[in-house]
Predict the 3D structure of the following.
Amino acid sequence: MRRLLSLFNVLSAILLAVAVLASQAVQRVPPAPDAPKLQLAERTALSLKVYFTDAQVQRLIPETRTVQVTQRTPAAIAQATLGVWAAGPSQSGHLGAVPRGTATPKVYVRGTHYYVDLPAAYSTLRYGTSGERMLLCTITRTLLDTRGQDVSFVLNGKPVETLGHMDLREPFTRQDCADQ
């Protein structure tokens, strides 16, 4: 019986017990963290003009629309406005510049200049010169209605010289689309 309670056996039993407890502690599943609280930003309604075309694609026709924005920065307002523009008109007799379901262009603002990144699908619309002009002018007039100096266009993130028949090398201004 002396050999059973030897110093070596007692220390080994203690080390074995510590090892079992450590193994159980490591294998325990950690508690799930609490989900973060979703904080919705307050939305502000702004009334803005959004431009569409008439049924003959000859004139620009404004519609007063309400856009919801979380920030009142020029970039946030411009992006929300183009979202409404891409969704199309709400009044009968007005035509949208792009088919419903077409992706909304991205807008970037630097000072008084807007930079519009048209999705790649816009290059395959095959509108002809007047349709392409209306597409670019509805965007230009919508963005420049309240502020800004000009709108430059890029296609799919890359500068291009033309969109179909329209020259995109120079920015568009209000005056470029005033005769519509």
The mean pLDDT is 87. The radius of gyration is 31 Å. The CA atoms of residues 4 and 10 lie 8 Å apart.
